Amino acid sequence: MASSLLSFLLLLMCCLLVSARDQTVGARGQLMCGNQPLNNTEVKLWELDTWPDPDDLLMTVYTDSPGRFSVWGTENEITTITPVVKIYHRCNNKGLFSIPNFCKRKVTYEIPSSYIANGRSVQRWYEMGTMNMEAKQRNEDTECL
C-alpha cells in the first residue's frame, strides 16, 4: 500500500513538472523626487508565491542618473505568475526616530496579468511611466537596514 501511494505521488509530481511553463514579464519607468530624478534607487522584480513555495526574486537594478529603470524576469510555474515591482527609496523620507537614511520607503506595484508572456522573452512591457515618489503611496512600507 505504501509503495503504491509513493508511486502515485511520484507520478503526480512528474505530471506537474511537465505542465509547468516559462512565463516572462517586464516593467520599466522613471522615478522622480519632486522635479529631481531619483537616481541610484533600488528596484526589484519579484514573483509572489503561496506557502510553502517562497517568493522568487527575478531581478534587481538601480535607476540611472535620469531615474530610469527596466526590470524583467522569467519564472517556470504551473499556475500564472504573480509579478510585483518593489521600489526602495529615500525620497521625502523623514527617517525612523528622526534619523534620516536609516530606513527606506518600500512601495509595491502589482503588474497586471495581461503583461505576462509564455516563453523566455518580454512580449509587452508594463510601462509604469514617470512616477513622483514624494507622496506616501498605497502599498507602502518602511524597510530598515
TrEMBL record:
Keywords: Secreted, Signal. It comes from the Eukaryota. InterPro entries: Transthyretin-like, Transthyretin-like_sf. One of its GO terms (cellular component) is extracellular region. It is found in: Secreted. The keyword Hydrolase does not apply. The keyword Signal applies. It holds the Pfam family TTR-52. Belongs to the nematode transthyretin-like family. PANTHER family: TRANSTHYRETIN-LIKE FAMILY PROTEIN-RELATED, TRANSTHYRETIN-LIKE PROTEIN 5. This is Uncharacterized protein.
